[in-house]
Amino acid sequence: KQEVTQIPAALSVPEGENLVLNCSFTDSAIYNLQWFRQDPGKGLTSLLLIQSSQREQTSGRLNASLDKSSGRSTLYIAASQPGDSATYLCAVPGSSNTGKLIFGQGTTLQVKP
Amino acid sequence: EPEVTQTPSHQVTQMGQEVILRCVPISNHLYFYWYRQILGQKVEFLVSFYNNEISEKSEIFDDQFSVERPDGSNFTLKIRSTKLEDSAMYFCASSARQGGAGELFFGEGSRLTVL
Questions:
Q1: Are B80 and B61 in contact (CB under 8 A)?
Q2: Does B103 contact A49 at a Cβ distance shorter than 8 Å?
Q3: Would the CB atoms of A102 and B101 count as touching at under 8 Å?
Q4: What is residue B17's predicted lDDT score, i.e. its pLDDT?
Q5: Residue B25: pLDDT above 90?
Q6: CB distance B111–A41 less than 8 Å?
Q7: A99 — contact with chain B (CB < 8 Å)?
Q8: Reduced to 3 DSSP states, what percent helix, strand and coil does chain B have, rounded to the nearest 5?
Q9: What pLDDT, on a 0 to 100 scale, did the predictor assign at position A9?
Q10: Is a pLDDT exceeding 70 seen at residue B64?
Q11: Which chain B residues have a beta carbon less than 8 Å from that of A105?
Q12: For position B2, what pLDDT does the model report?
């Protein structure tokens, strides 16, 4: 059964720092991995989708990497800003290929001015 | 930019009442989903829907739940007789491609409070 874990659960950094969020999954047979952002009380905004054949995906100050064999993904945020404060979730598809996503519990990031 | 829209944003209901949550997926998407998030917990899959059929449902999605695509634009989640433990944020999502290949796009959610 696929399980997704995110470490750390919470992170507080000063503005301008580069930071790394971690995601691990137990079953490496995944099609892709998706990173989301969730602001308090709001929906999920898709940040990056990495296909299983890719090792990295970049969007602006965000860079996500995927190492299927070790069951890990990282989300790198460069030059963090207070507006980056949110919860970051990673998710992988279930084995049934019906679009079901299995989510981690998220990392709540606070960037202090 | 196309987006998934959900109504209502917040609904308060009494235990035992029926609730219908509505979603308008992105217009050219064919795959639709409902997820829920109980406060402080992980986002959980409820059901996936394609071609007017349920593709997969979770253990949470029991006989009290149903989904429907009543017309070409709406996708609804019905809870027949709400329980206190149904209180959660419910998210609708859609994707253009099947299953694991597709990027899912989520709505802003409908917060359901059962009293």
A1: no
A2: yes
A3: no
A4: 97
A5: yes
A6: yes
A7: yes
A8: 5, 50, 45
A9: 95
A10: yes
A11: 41-42
A12: 73
Contact call for residues A72 and A9 (beta carbons, < 8 A): no
**Which residue bears the tokens 């998706």?**
A34
Predicted confidence (pLDDT) at residue A33 exceeds the cutoff of 90:
yes
Put simply, the answer to whether A99 touches B100 (Cβ < 8 Å) is yes
Q: Give the chain B residue nearest A4 (alpha carbons).
A: B42
DSSP string over B49-85: EETTEEEEE-TT--TTEEEE--SSS-EEEEESS--GG
Distance between CA atoms of residues B18 and B62, nearest Å: 15
In sequence order, what E strands does chain A have? Answer: 4-7, 10-14, 19-25, 32-38, 44-51, 56-59, 62-67, 72-77, 86-93, 101-103, 107-112
Nearest to A99 among B33, B89, B106 (CB): B33
Longest CA–CA span in chain A (Å) reads 44
**What φ, ψ does residue B100 adopt, rounded to 5°?**
-65, -20
- Buried/exposed B70-103: b ≥16 CB within 10 Å, e otherwise: eeeeebebebeebeeebbbbbbbbbbeebbbbbe
pLDDT single digits (tens) A40-85: 988 999 999 999 889 999 999 999 999 999 999 999 999 999 999 9
Chain B partners of A94 at a C-beta cutoff of 8 Å? Answer: 45, 56
**How close A45 comes to chain B (CA, Å)?**
7
Q: DSSP code of B104?
A: P
For residues B82 and B18, the answer to whether their CB atoms sit within 8 Å is yes
